[in-house]
Amino acid sequence: MNAWRTGRILTTVLIGALAVPLMYGVLHLPPPGQADAPAHSNVSAKYIEHGAEHGGSENLVTGVLLNYRALDTFGEVLVIFTAWLAVAAVAGTARQTGHESTPPSPIVDYVIRMLAPFIAVFALFVIVNGHVLPGGGFQGGVLLGAMLILLSLAHGGEPVADVVSLRTWIWLRAAGVLVFALVALLGLPLTGYLFGLPTDPTLRHALMIVLELGIGIGGGAVLGGLYFSIAGVERS
Amino acid sequence: MNAATSVFSHIDYLVAVALFLSGAWILLTSNNLVKKIIGLNVMETSVFAFIVTTGMIDDGAPPLLAAGVEGPFASPLPHALVLTGIVVAVSVTSLALVLVLRIKAELGSVELDEIESVGEHDDSAGPGGGSG
């Protein structure tokens, strides 16, 4: 218990030592919400001024994600795909079977079955409207992933097992990375730059929707895969 | 500006700092690995809240350009950065959770003190008592 007490005291001292400079620093920032704060004056102001024209998207966040900081977003897609690879590698060697989940009541089961198609349609709506409305690939992908997790919670096992073959299901998880890499390479002949999007508005919108679909479907599949791996219900 | 008004006008930032410190406290003091992951998530969330708050403008519109919407617009950059952060947080959390599952499967516990005592028993049991 003595070591425990020393640890507590050390932690309190550390948290206190962290609290003082953080509070001090934060109090000397410009207060949040001021329009003339540095956070709003340089890069952000340019994004708002030219974002719709350069980024090709009325939703400026999507413009930043898919155009200004496309390399960043590519890394993001790669990170979550790599995370799934790592999770599958760790989970695959120690399969936690034996705990059969109890089936939910028929009412819960019915409601989840009824809800799932609507969630999927809403997810698709969020994905393809990412350039005009709040939303985009990641948000829609999370909705798709939540639907997969909900179905898996209700029925146990992989809800996509009857619909998608194992090979397709694995490739689907790489969809985000592959589509993004393809569009990035397509930028070379079209604009001369990696990750460049063409200036023709129709073509650019089409490419952005393709990107969003790739991120959304790939992200949803990865999120579902993360849950299936952790829950130990994945096909192998 | 005196200290009281300064605290009042920066209350959003101060709440984020308080959340960050509580997350750090949970992370450092919990004995349970799952609670440590929750503490890490609280810390991450506080950072996201802080970054998004810097992009906020009083009476501003969201950065969606549409007919009839007048500025000032909130800054789109923090939103995009936080989206990246959330994806990384999800990845880290899922990897941490699956590692905790693995620890539970191998050592039978997610409590740090119990895991340490498992190690001691294995040592006294002689060679071959390592990984189960």
Give a structural overview.
The complex is a heterodimer of chains A (236) and B (132). Chain A is 74% helix and 0% strand. Chain A is mostly helical. Chain A has two domains: 1-29; 57-231, no CATH class. The model of chain A has no long low-confidence stretch (mean pLDDT 86). Chain B is mostly helical and 132 residues long. Chain B has one domain (3-124): Helix Hairpins (Orthogonal Bundle), CATH 1.10.287.3510. Helix content of chain B is 70%, strand content 0%. Chain B is elongated, with a radius of gyration of 22 Å. Chain B starts with a helix and ends in an 8-residue tail after the last helix. The relative contact order of chain B is 0.10. At the A-B interface, α1, α3, α4, α5 and α10 of A face α1, α2 and α4 of B.
Largest interface, per-chain counts?
Answer: A-B, 58 and 53 residues
Computed over alpha carbons, the radius of gyration of chain B is: 22 Å
Which overall shape of chain A is indicated by the principal axes computed on the Cα atoms? globular
Strand and helix order of chain B: HHHHH
Overall strand count of chain B: 0
Most strands sheet of chain B? none
CATH class of chain B: Mainly Alpha
> What low-confidence regions of chain B span 5 or more consecutive residues with pLDDT below 50?
123-132
Instruction: Please give the share of residues in helix of chain A.
Output: over 70%
Estimated share of beta-strand residues of chain B: under 5%
How many helices of chain B does DSSP assign? 5
N-C termini distance of chain A = 46 Å
Oligomer: heterodimer
**CATH architecture identity of chain B:** Orthogonal Bundle
Total discrete domains of chain B: 1
**In angstroms, what separates the terminal alpha carbons of chain B?**
63 Å
Mean pLDDT of chain B comes to 85
Strand content of chain A: under 5%
Helices, strands, pairings?
The complex is a heterodimer of chains A (236) and B (132).
Chain A lengths: L1 H26 L10 H4 L1 H13 L4 H9 L1 H24 L12 H23 L8 H19 L10 H8 L1 H17 L9 H31 L5
Chain B lengths: L2 H7 L1 H19 L3 H22 L21 H32 L4 H13 L8
Helix pairs in contact in B: 2-3, 3-4
